Amino acid sequence: MPPVPPEFPPNSLPIVLSFAASDPTGGAGIQADILTQASLGCHPATVITALTVQDTAGVEDLLPVDAGWIADQARAVLEDMPAAAFKLGMLASVEAIAAIAEIISDYPGVPLVFDPVLASGRGDQFASEDMIDAMLELLLPQTTVLTPNSIEARRLAACDEGGDSPELAECARRLVATGCGFVLVTGTHENTEQVLNTLYGLRGVVRSDRWPRLPGSYHGSGCTLASAIAAHLALGLAVDEAVAQAQEYTWRSLKAGFRPGMGQFLPNRLWRLNEH
What is the pTM of this model? Predict the structure, then answer.
């Protein structure tokens, strides 16, 4: 049994522990998690899974963190602080996936949101087939909400490319069958006038939400959405409502986005500050 962390005072913020890569631009990865969770009233705790060399146009290089270091980072935090939710992002090796799976298995009551980062928006590949197999076997059975985009859903579920909504529904069915509680398939990459995001559970569609398609390309939108879901779960919302609130927050962040470099736009996760 893991050590029980100390009790915290009533005014302590709910803690979300994120496992993700560092993004020097602040657009995605662990930096996106920190900004999102803090802006929604949670305290972000972090485990770095990889270091990257990247700008707003794409990833140039990736250095996975040793799985032992990943485990040590997580254990040090979890033996000291009570996590209200976990969020997983880029996991850079099979060994890292196995180490994280072992750690979170000690906390079955803590909700887990998994954003399966398989490639960058430019197409830089981050996940081998062995890594995908490890995700399916070790992580998905422990996942509360999986948040793949349509491309990631097809690859994870081994569905044929280029299908329509029923085909994506079959992908979601296969992913739910691995043991995860819910699958939120996002439709940003689909050729539709509006973006359709659909939440699936054991009984099929739980909710579908349509959002106006915004111009431009965004770096870190998936990280923002997954982190927002984790934050809302940490705050005590049910999955359905957490997904609804997280989509609203993410869409507003994208609408208020800005382009600090020569590549993609970044979400403005602090958009609420402009409302006062």
Answer: 0.93
